[in-house]
Task: structure prediction
Amino acid sequence: MSIEKTITDMARSAKEAAKAVAHLGTQKKDEALERIAQKLLDEAATIKRENEKDLADAREKGLSEAMIDRLTVSDAVIESMAGGLGDVVKLPDPVGRVTGMWLRPNGLQVGRVRIPLGVIGMIYEARPNATIDAAGLCLKAGNAAILRGGSEAFNSNTILAEIIQGALRETGIPKAAAQVIPVRDRTAVNVLLAQDEYVDLIIPRGGEGLIRFVVENSKIPVLKHYKGVCHVYVDEDADLGMAEKISYNAKVQRPGVCNAMETLLVHEAVAESFLHPMARRFKEAGVELRGCPKTCEIVPEANIATDEDWPAEYLDLILAVKVVASMEEATDHIARYGSAHTEAIVTSDYARARRFLTEVDASVVLVNASTRFNDGGELGLGAEIGISTSKLHAYGPMGLEELTTTKFVVFGDGQVRT
Amino acid sequence: MSIEKTITDMARSAKEAAKAVAHLGTQKKDEALERIAQKLLDEAATIKRENEKDLADAREKGLSEAMIDRLTVSDAVIESMAGGLGDVVKLPDPVGRVTGMWLRPNGLQVGRVRIPLGVIGMIYEARPNATIDAAGLCLKAGNAAILRGGSEAFNSNTILAEIIQGALRETGIPKAAAQVIPVRDRTAVNVLLAQDEYVDLIIPRGGEGLIRFVVENSKIPVLKHYKGVCHVYVDEDADLGMAEKISYNAKVQRPGVCNAMETLLVHEAVAESFLHPMARRFKEAGVELRGCPKTCEIVPEANIATDEDWPAEYLDLILAVKVVASMEEATDHIARYGSAHTEAIVTSDYARARRFLTEVDASVVLVNASTRFNDGGELGLGAEIGISTSKLHAYGPMGLEELTTTKFVVFGDGQVRT
Result:
């Protein structure tokens, strides 16, 4: 069968399945999620055997140790996938929730009710657990999912798909409600991105290259962020101990993720007293500093930053540092180089805290907290399926609610328009 | 100056203006709206003189009387434009509204706040008042607007743009906050649709041809509906007097609009008793009926419907009629031929009312009320800028709130992730 036909058939059957999944009760969906979790644990040996094929290929291709580590499905990873599904079971079902209801002067009662989006296509490069996470969240929100993981995880994702579909079948849910694309060929992605008749939303997760490819080739709406160039601005009225703790956490705790700090902005009034101890801590942690001329005066071991550093997303133990003369210079820098992802201020000044929150255009803006909190779980949305820096539909972490929309329901007793 | 450069400059300046408009207080925005309204009244003679040029062109080109009527800006139309702006002044400002705020276990206070989308491109064929309506709604929601009306209303829209920008200037708001495209050439639309760097959303309004053109050529997200193929289903347990009143209103009150009924579905148990008097009333109103074979048996003067009638949006005094054996047959027909716009059931049966509301996938689903209520004003959202049958971001009429999004704000006191 041609790739074209394979993918089109998948999309069509997903649309059909979506109609059934949209009207499943919460109990039924939770039952399916629990069955998937149980099967993952029961079939751990099979999963690891299939994963071993991917690992062998990866070693043969000479993939880095970090890549191989991400690809490895150990018992601990399997338990964490099952545990993640358990967490999704505990989340409240967004479907059917009435987000508002009001009475019109003519007696019409008008309400808005959450409904699923339909069919969601996920395209990702991440570790195989993304397959389970995405399938679980899509199902709980009443959507069908078409999943396309990285080709290096092909065998792992295929066995995970079999486990998911086995659990769906046992629960009486159409197996087309969660499908993994069964071909490695990248043209499968192009074909998927053209299925606007059947697929309602595409969520890509991965490097900027993958995401740009998806955006440029998709006829279907895409929710995504290209990158996270996140700033911490240390204000002249910052508690410097707090600023140090937050800056350290934002850069060092997990440098390879999108909500890690990439540029530190420091008010000139506190630049010396803040940067001396801060640079020492960063040095101990192995962070390379790339500073503006003023920064390099204060911290002689810092390298001089170039024009490429300010828009850079290092995803590594590298940090750009700039001394600014005012909060305005900081917010102007953020407006120019930021990626509308996550921006933080550290300050004790009430007015500047309020102004920063209002004026900075980013999906998450924080006062006196680490950028690392831009995460669905940390912000209280439950598990997240991604982060959007597009403003339409969702801006920020996307949880179950963002996988739904609302329709209007109207209760009348014979009203007509005059 | 080339069209390319004209439009790109407009888009860039709109983005710049959007930053200022986003942070204007409600009073300032309302002041500008009131000034526009006052100027419209003050400069009525000038507006009518410019409009006369469009009307002369239209007569020369032999446009229909209906088209010329839509194009005419009379004193009454000017008063209605000014009145419409007064209504927008009275609407609550969505910007800055906190849609939720909660405390996390670690003491972080997390909230979601409404913010404007940015720059909105409106492409429409409608009467010149659309220019005023769209500019008013975009401004109140804190957005900059780029407006492109029909070429037949070019002179009218140009003078309206001058009036709007005069009022903006007097209020101290950048005039690039509301711009009308100053070239007739259609390539201007193609250039606008490529400005994804500066424009955040495109809303097209008009015929299906225009909308498909916009969707196919836009690099920017589009909110739209292609057409409104709306149904009324008269259930076996309907109050037939109510069903007659609703069906008549849905078809006849204003047949040329997207929320008018195009197909009437009637349960076979009440087909005879309902269709006899209903057909008489439709005949008096000049409605042509195109029925399924059963309908034609009951109403011999009905024409036989063909396969083209079920998906048709007549926008005219023509109605397709089908007798169905069950509500399932009705909802299957709606799923197949409907356009996810507006669907209504007339019934006294509690369970079927609930099932219809839940199972029918449309932006507005009504029980015992006319389809004509799918309208922002009628549903209580205030003025509307359009209706979306795309599910992403907005599904149904779009009011001020749909011209905004939310960002997360986080208040901490030194929290870091562990």
Summary: The longest strand of chain A covers residues 404-415. The domain at 3-224+394-410 of chain A is CATH 3.40.605.10 (Aldehyde Dehydrogenase; Chain A, domain 1). Chain A touches chain B through 66 residues (CB under 8 Å). The mean pLDDT of chain A is 96.
